[in-house]
Design goal:
This protein is mostly beta strands. It has a six-stranded antiparallel barrel. It starts with 10 loop residues before the first strand and ends in a 20-residue tail after the last strand.
């Protein structure tokens, strides 16, 4: 075991650091339960007072997000110079913003959808839990490989 490469330690992030990182990017993935199974949708989002807000049109994403099931949202990033990556996941309940004051206040948020079309629904995800981790991206020569004589996959 002397020649085994050193595996970098994964750092578990505090809530405050998770929010700091979420504010650095604007695209994440929204995980929902849709009809008979899980689904994932990319969303352009922004943070707002300890919540995440995104705009969407009518359709499957909106319907699933507002169902009785909780949602999860994940965002991540990597510094190409240092090879340090991070990932943040929040879990909670999505709610449609319907109060006039809430909707009007969202117009000042930096929400810029990538896809054209009518995005007239504002959804706020109120997290019940947030977690994150930071780690160094491992070079390919440190990835696990089976030892000689070990079972080989059908793809080899």
């Amino acid at each position: 075991m002397e020649n085994e490469p050193l595996v970098p330690k994964t750092e578990q992030l505090e809530s405050q650091e998770c929010w700091h990182l979420l504010r650095q990017v604007s695209v994440g993935r929204l995980a929902v339960w849709h009809e008979d199974g899980p689904d994932i949708f990319p969303v352009n989002y922004t943070t707002d007072h300890g919540t995440v807000v995104f705009r969407t049109g009518s359709g499957a994403k909106l319907q699933a997000a507002l169902s009785d099931f909780p949602v999860a949202m994940e965002a991540d990033g990597v510094d190409p110079d240092t090879g340090v990556a991070w990932s943040v996941v929040l879990r909670g309940k999505a709610e449609l913003l319907t109060q006039k004051e809430d909707v009007l206040s969202t117009f000042s948020l930096p929400l810029f959808p990538w896809e054209a079309g009518k995005k007239d629904h504002f959804v706020r995800v109120v997290p019940g839990q947030i977690s994150g981790r930071r780690f160094t991206v491992a070079p390919p020569n440190t990835w696990w490989t089976p030892t000689e004589g070990a079972h080989r996959s059908a793809f080899e």
